[in-house]
Design brief:
401 residues; mainly alpha
Amino acid sequence: MSEASSPASTLPARRLAISLGVVQLLSWATSFYVPAVIVGTAAAELGASTALLMGGFSWALLITGLSAPRIGRWIGRHGGRGVLAASTLVLALGLALLAAAQGPAGWFLAWSVLGMGMALGLYDAAFATAGTLLGQGVAPAITGISLLGGFASTLGWPAGTALLDVVGWRGTLLAYAAIQLLVNLPLILWAVPRADPVATARATAVAADAGPIGLRRLMLLCMGSFFTLRWFITSALAAHVLPLMSGLNLTTSQAMAAAMLIGPGQVIGRLLEWGLASRIGVLWRARLGALLFPLGAVLLLTGSPYGAFGFTLLYGMSNGILTINRGTLPMLVFGSRGYAALLGWLAMPVVLAQAAAPTLAAPIIEALPAADLLVLAGCVAGLGAVLLLPLRARRANAMAE
């Protein structure tokens, strides 16, 4: 059986994509976006600084990044059904421990568990699971998963804030734990089939036709460096987005409106990626996504509020497209053999960059005017796009380039 004709033809791929998309939406909303909702209230009750409590979240991301390669290898060998199901149990436990925390020690313990839960259950694990099941036909599923998952902040922040007002931060966390057990776990068990042992055994091997080993290493280095750089910039900006928008000579309401355009921009970017799938190849869609950020930074040179709105919209679109490409580019360039393990290795530096970026970038953000900083970030992102140029589709996928 050829790689391209693997389980994609028999698997209910649409059900898989929609179900995992809902799971991702709820998992991101109840894990990654939790600090934005509860940290202020929790800090006041626990008598701790918000910086210390945010340190627990950074610690969790460190655990997520370091765990990613091992989890990717496991999914490649055994399939992702068990891993994703386990993630709901681990996330529920972590959320319950967080709700019970009485001080920094309990807080950091809970985030240690949540860090493992995020490694088991967020995008990289979901993409690896879909790739193991669908092989070369995984791209539409990854688009669907990330499209639904892209609404996590849109849902998580207002819903979490509403719950916070009604049941407090501890009750909110317990409600989140219940969502993991009562919604996500049944969805995973219903929609994600057990992996074919023959297919998973075949997928653990390195592709024989992925090109000379030197070229493969170069492409792997370029791909990993590109995504690490982009996610470092994105995480650094996300942690300071409102002060940066306010530094563009915008009113408070204009700064808030500009920041709020990032989320819709991500969704528009994912829709654009899906709409262009039949017209241009994955590599060219990735290059387009990479260039939207620097193009948006050019708009800031106008000095007008419309330039700021255009920047955040294009910046969000860029992030939305590249989230999909994190799953589709490795499949295109390296094939389905070893795909899950490769995603795990690529995820490690990306997640570590996410954890370190807000702290490492803070002195630069404080030293430079907002407009200069964002234009500089756009220039660095534009230079980073050069890392995509050496990438080539492996021979079996050449038509998709």
